[in-house]
Design brief:
Layout: E1 3-6, H1 19-32, E2 36-39, H2 43-53, H3 62-71, E3 75-79, E4 90-94, H4 97-110, H5 121-133, H6 137-156, E5 169-173, H7 174-177, H8 187-199, E6 204-206, H9 208-211, E7 213-214, E8 220-221, E9 227-231, H10 239-254, E10 262-266, E11 277-280
Parallel strand pairs: 1-2, 2-3
Antiparallel strand pairs: 3-4, 5-9, 6-9, 7-8, 10-11
Helix pairs in contact: 2-3, 6-10, 8-10
Length: 283
């Protein structure tokens, strides 16, 4: 067993984790002898939020803050497609040499030799460069502000969103926008479909399709939140692109009452949200 903390919290509105929180988790793990890992794919954005929000860190660089974050944990998982600024790849890091050896042996069987892990050389170079560039303070300031810009436009138009905005995405509260759709008719999925049909804006459901559970009686239990994540690609969109996304979101919100729910017609036994097929209701 281990404790995993995701920075930033992707399923909870992209919110950051404070250094004080990380230290408190470290203390609990030490008390019970449990390893502490970070899901660190957005570590740089989290470090920048600590810098601008947490007392005592305003004069620290994002690099220094990130180093302190990693010093508190026993290991980390990392998808380089996020704060690695790369197209593919990632890594698993840990302090325990014995566990690392077991992981390397498994890597050879499943991905490739430990020196490349199944990745091409240019992908490894992209990750190495990305890990440096992602901690540039000017980049992080622009990145966070771009997300905030979309959030501000949506909020000003009355679109219910998770506030304050996270670092990598704006999260629309589909349960609030589509209050007429029951949770088990998947309002977040319905909103995601409508955004794509209307303007080609591709978001992702973070609701009962992804996190719904099956109770002891076999009935489905809805998730606590019904969100649609609009993740913003790094170094890709201009302000005009973000303006277009906002226009589509606002247009859909204005006719929210006309949107109907969906039912699942095909699903996998695990991780159904990746491959499930749906059928619209009420059309």
């Amino acid at each position: 067993p281990l404790v995993m903390v995701t920075v930033t919290n992707n399923s909870g509105g992209g919110q950051p984790v404070s250094m004080a929180n990380l230290r408190a988790v470290r203390a609990v793990c030490d008390r019970y002898g449990i390893p502490f890992f970070l899901d660190a794919c957005r570590f740089a954005e989290n470090a920048y939020f600590i810098k601008i929000r947490e007392e005592g860190y305003a004069d620290r660089t994002p690099t220094e803050i990130a180093q302190e974050m990693f010093s508190l944990v026993d290991g980390a998982t990392f998808s380089a497609k996020k704060d690695g600024l790369a197209n593919i790849g990632g890594f698993l890091a840990m302090n325990n040499a014995e566990v690392a050896l077991r992981c390397r042996n498994l890597l050879i069987l499943t991905e490739g030799f430990p020196t490349y892990g199944g990745l091409a050389g240019y992908d490894l170079e992209a990750i190495a460069t990305g890990l440096e560039e992602v901690l540039d303070e000017d980049y992080l300031r622009y990145r966070i502000r771009s997300t905030q810009y979309l959030a501000d436009k949506a909020h000003a138009a009355g679109v219910p969103i998770v506030r304050p905005a996270g670092g990598h995405a704006v999260y629309i509260d589909a349960a609030a926008m589509l209050a007429h759709i029951p949770a088990l008719q998947y309002p977040a999925q319905a909103l995601g479909v409508e955004l794509y049909r209307t303007g080609g804006v591709r978001g992702v459901e973070i609701g009962s399709v992804m996190f719904g559970a099956i109770g002891a009686d076999g009935a489905e239990i809805p998730a606590a939140m019904e969100l649609v994540r609009l993740a913003i690609p790094r170094r890709t969109y201009t302000q005009s692109h973000i303006d277009y996304v906002a226009e589509v979101v606002i247009d859909v919100a204005r006719r929210a009452d006309s949107i109907h729910g969906y039912r699942i017609v095909e699903q996998a036994p695990q991780l159904r949200h990746f491959t499930a097929r749906f059928e619209p209701l009420g059309h």
